[in-house]
């Protein structure tokens, strides 16, 4: 097994050289970098699949990039990637392989875990999903009373919700419009109540998606959905035709009352936040159809191959990871904005928040030592141009450095009048304004009153990546998502953390389980929390009349 460098990250010679280099270049302005090299906007670009990635508007020189690549080599990023895709148990705290790349491997590929090739199982499930999706879409699969399915409700949370919900929105132009799709995740009863309100039980299919099938939110929503269906259709037997499960846990699925013949499985080597190319994508497949779903997988696979076979200096996810790390660890940037200029990518930032923050929100290394550097950033964003009229002010003139990804498309699914060119004019304008700004001299030349000059000056030097896609299709969406997956991988590999566990979500769950009965108990004498939590619970109980 190839093991990453054992040297402490901050003691790596390449890290220390980056530290010295940072002191030399931290004040360099993008205006000067562009003035010194007229070809910068063409040379500092790379492609991966159909993605064109311009990283020239970053505060990097060729020396910066060289040092970052040295760091990636010293930390064995390529070797660590190879260890992941070849099935080694790189999720060490859970003793698991990490093989979301196998979910999109072609039929003839071989990927072994513990001596067993997993690719045939992957395709067996995909084939079963395809057959089921076809039968629902064609009207062959009917509900208990013989009605074709007209509404699909995915019940899941986290990785069992965000991927399909994001991709369903992104690929609406590819979706069946005569079937409605809803995604219920929150345990707040409002979520399921509002979805059920408009539905006809006889033509509704529920997909209960949960890797573990023990998640409180999902099981609570699933029970509510089942009670509703049974009361609407007047028979327990209706459940069989209206509920399917997606899970790794057949035992719990059977306990819930779903026949395991109606279950689509996946495996412990698929992390929740990496699971939407697995059976977790069933709702998406029902919406766009099996062929388009396979296109999405093919797009992801193209990027998996790109990462494996492209030298690091042209390797897009590796470059994006290293540049992100440059800001996080050397400039101290705390956040990373993701700004898609496509309304269809409305849920992208939500999806990337789990992908990035649950993966790299860690403060100990794989061997358990506290890190002495920064790890994962806060990821946020909304589609342009809306944000321009809200928070971009702070990105342009605030005191915080916010590296931002601008994602744009050439050919929109909806050509409406001049909308697309006006949208894209903004997509090009914002990174230009952020990089080059506007100087006091320019303002004075324009005759701006002296007292307004400081207010109207744009410092510039705000870094951005521009990602340009020909169009948004299942294939290009797959490419985009896999690019971000491997960007996150690259950063985790350099930081030496385990990007594939999520122990940090456990404590709150345990406490909620303890508190739930305290909210409804007859007497509150036994509250044993801190004084703040105790007082809040007592107040809540009294507001609820208990
Ligand atoms: O799919 P499930 O087992 O229901 O888990 C759903 C989600 O909940 C957990 O708390 C984890 O933080 C997520 O990584 C996971 O995606």
UniProtKB/TrEMBL annotation:
Gene giving rise to this polypeptide: pgi
A single GO molecular function term of this UniProt record: carbohydrate derivative binding
Documented EC number(s): 5.3.1.9
Pathway: Carbohydrate biosynthesis; gluconeogenesis; Carbohydrate degradation; glycolysis; D-glyceraldehyde 3-phosphate and glycerone phosphate from D-glucose: step 2/4
Enzymatic reactions: alpha-D-glucose 6-phosphate = beta-D-fructose 6-phosphate
GO cellular component annotations of the record: cytosol
Top EC class, one word: isomerase
Pfam family, one: PGI
Highest rank taxon of the organism: Bacteria
PANTHER family in UniProt: GLUCOSE-6-PHOSPHATE ISOMERASE (PTHR11469:SF1)
Primary location class: cytoplasm
SUPFAM superfamilies to which the protein is assigned, alphabetical: SIS domain
Role: Catalyzes the reversible isomerization of glucose-6-phosphate to fructose-6-phosphate.
GO annotation (BP), single: glucose 6-phosphate metabolic process
Catalytic machinery residues: 358, 389, 509
Protein name: Glucose-6-phosphate isomerase
Listed CDD domains: SIS_PGI_1, SIS_PGI_2
Gene3D superfamilies linked to this entry: 1.10.1390.10, Glucose-6-phosphate isomerase like protein, domain 1 (3.40.50.10490)
């Amino acid at each position: 097994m190839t093991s990453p460098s054992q040297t402490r990250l901050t003691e790596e010679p390449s890290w220390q050289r980056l530290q010295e280099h940072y002191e030399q270049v931290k004040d360099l302005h993008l205006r000067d970098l562009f003035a010194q090299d007229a070809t910068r906007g063409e040379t500092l670009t790379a492609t991966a699949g159909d993605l064109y990635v311009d990283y020239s508007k970053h505060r990097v020189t060729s020396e910066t990039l060289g040092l970052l690549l040295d760091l990636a080599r010293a930390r064995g990023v390529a070797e660590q990637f190879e260890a992941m895709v070849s099935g080694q148990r790189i999720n060490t705290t859970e003793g698991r392989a990490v093989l979301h790349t196998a979910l999109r491997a072609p039929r003839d590929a071989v990927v072994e875990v513990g001596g067993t090739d997993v690719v045939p199982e992957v395709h067996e499930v995909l084939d079963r999903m395809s057959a089921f999706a076809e039968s629902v879409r064609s009207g062959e699969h009917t509900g208990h009373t013989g009605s074709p399915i007209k509404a699909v409700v995915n019940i899941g949370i986290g990785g069992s919700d965000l991927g399909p919900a994001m991709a369903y929105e992104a690929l609406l132009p590819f979706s069946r419009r005569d079937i409605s799709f809803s995604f219920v995740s929150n345990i707040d009863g409002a979520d399921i109540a509002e979805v059920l309100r408009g539905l006809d039980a006889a033509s509704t299919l529920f997909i209960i998606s949960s890797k573990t099938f023990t998640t409180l939110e999902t099981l609570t929503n699933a029970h509510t959905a089942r009670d509703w269906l049974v009361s609407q259709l007047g028979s327990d037997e209706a459940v069989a035709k209206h509920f399917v499960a997606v899970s790794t846990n057949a035992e719990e699925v059977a306990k819930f009352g779903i026949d395991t013949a109606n279950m689509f499985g996946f495996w412990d080597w698929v992390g929740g936040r990496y699971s939407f190319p697995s059976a977790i994508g069933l709702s998406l497949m029902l919406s766009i159809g099996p062929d388009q779903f396979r296109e999405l997988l093919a797009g992801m696979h193209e990027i998996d191959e790109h990462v494996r076979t492209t030298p690091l200096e042209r390797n897009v996810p590796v470059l994006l990871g290293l540049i992100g790390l440059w800001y996080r660890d050397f400039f101290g940037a705390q956040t990373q904005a993701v700004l898609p200029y496509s309304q269809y990518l409305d849920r992208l930032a939500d999806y990337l928040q789990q992908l990035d923050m649950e993966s790299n929100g860690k403060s100990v290394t794989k061997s358990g030592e506290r890190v002495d550097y920064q790890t994962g950033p806060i990821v946020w964003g909304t589609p342009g141009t809306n944000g321009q009229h809200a928070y971009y002010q702070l990105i342009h003139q605030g005191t915080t450095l916010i590296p931002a990804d601008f994602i744009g498309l050439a050919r929109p699914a909806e050509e409406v009048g001049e909308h697309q060119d006006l949208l894209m004019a903004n997509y090009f304008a914002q990174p230009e304004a952020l990089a080059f700004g506007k100087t006091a001299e320019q303002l004075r030349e324009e005759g701006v009153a002296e007292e307004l000059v400081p207010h109207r000056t744009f410092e510039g030097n705000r870094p951005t990546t521009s990602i340009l896609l020909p169009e948004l299709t299942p294939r290009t969406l797959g490419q985009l998502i896999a690019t971000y997956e491997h960007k996150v991988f690259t950063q985790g590999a350099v930081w030496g953390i385990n990007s594939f566990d999520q122990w940090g979500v456990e404590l709150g769950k345990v406490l909620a389980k303890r508190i739930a009965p305290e909210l409804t108990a007859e007497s509150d004498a036994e509250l044993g929390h801190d004084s703040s939590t105790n007082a809040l619970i007592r107040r809540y109980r009294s507001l609820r009349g208990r």
